[in-house]
Amino acid sequence: MNYQKLDAALATGLNDVQDPEETNLEVFIHTEPILDSAATAVLESLGISGITSGKDIFTATLSQNAISQLSEQPWVKYLKRSQQLRLVNRRINIGKLGA
Hints:
Blueprint: H1 8-15, E1 25-31, H2 37-45, E2 57-62, H3 64-71, E3 76-81
Antiparallel strand pairs: 1-2, 1-3
């Protein structure tokens, strides 16, 4: 595994994995913009669709083993963990508007 291509959240998440074959980590895969047929075949074998020329960010739910495999590919720039975002309910106190 090339840990230099993993963000901190993904590297930390990999420590919590019980089964390295279970697909339970949502990631963004950042690649070179132009992929050859071998790179496209690797992504498709992992269940990633929508691979088109010029596209360089893909999303997938992967296993630890798949992340390890991708991190070793020269055309993968880096892998980033996808986080569930939460809305923050906050009231903005706007004072009286006037002259």
